[in-house]
Fold this protein.
Amino acid sequence: MPLNESQFQSVCSTARRAAIFHSAADALEWDERTGMPIAAGEYRAEQVSTLRSSAHQLRTDAHYGDALQELLQHSGDLDPHSDQAATIRSLHRDFVRDQKLPLDLVTRLSVATVRGQQTWDDARKRDSFAAFEPALTEIIALKREAGSRMAEGTSRSVYEALLDEYEPDAKVDELNPVFSDLKQQLSELIVAVTDSPQQPNVEPLQRSFPIPSQRAFSRDVAEWVGFDFARGRLDETSHPFCTTLGPNDCRILTRYEEHWLPSGLFGTLHEAGHGMYEQGLRNDWFGLPPGSYVSLGIHESQSRLWENQVGRSRPFWDWLYPKAQQTFSGQLGGTELEDVYFAINQVRPSLIRVEADEATYNLHILIRFELEQALINEELSISDLPEAWNQQYQQCLGITPPSDADGVLQDVHWSAGLFGYFPTYTLGNLAAAQLFDAAAESLGDLDGMMSRGEFAPLLEWLRDNVHRHGRNHSGSELITAATGKPLSSDHLMRYLENKLRPLYGI
């Protein structure tokens, strides 16, 4: 029996309506993080929860589910990677997961996470985990309940059910050996680098860089690499992020530090990478699988590629440094490019994940990966979390946070209920290196292009091989199709070894 076209259009219409509710909630959360009055927080939680609950009702309606089931049964003759097949398959998958969550739980989770983010922001400013602990306790209890329900009828653990929301079909037993091998290789490289007598001088990057000048420069850099400001904007917040409010409305947010230029610059490049992925998705399928990102690991690969493989490369700085010297003549005028390039590629164990160097960054992620599993599996009490965090940092990085603000409270993710999100950062780092190598092989003289400020060929390659596919392929299928091989750590380690060993003379 041929596919029922009117039925297909009906389920698409429902999914698009749900996307409108979600994007409206995203807009309110963006406003909350950028300029909402403090006293408005309680009502904002009600607004967001109402919108997300409405979307959930649409996405779990019984008639909608029946229609998807019928479409799935009659989609066997379709190309599995076609827009129609991907839409039916992915929407049905989402329905099966979402209908396991009762509306009351979705509402309570939405309220708890909006309030949780507000509480976290205040607690971090006050350097008080105790002020955040009650909110985190409530969120974790709700996420355990959600994970338990989503795991029903599957072989997934509670944690894997939460992980599946961000990285579909990922399994802890499959991630652990990859991450363990990466951790060992990174640890050996970090020891070699930090033991080298040849170390960069980062003082030039710690001079006083006026925030208004950083703000203008970062905006220019985002535009130069390809972020479309006719379809997006750049703002500031306490924790950088990217959110999409519509097919032509992508918001990226960063933060600046007067005495550390890399913070705002690389934060902007990172979020611009996310934004360019969102802007590369197909507008005509917005709110549907072909117009949606495939996984957060793939999403993170785009941000890390532009931040690191491009932004920390020598060809990029051959092009950018004269512009930086022009903007910050009083700070960088007498500093050689070679010294700045070495400084931005410094390897040094540090406290803050979002400002960590490329070599130590994944150790930050692996710490969080282990801790959040222990929290969800009830192997670690919430009251013991700060101590466990500090112990892990001492063990893995040789440093102990002097405060909760620079320790367990530094990330917004858990306050937003994003358990299972952190491992996607390391998956993204692996994919970024592998995709960049494939792009370089395909495009030819990519280094030469970057040294001339020509970023359009790389962006277009990513558009063709990643962005435009949406969810028509799985993340693993996408990597294999784009690079010719499954995801591995080889490309990332080769990239780091080839860059860092010459810089540090090892």
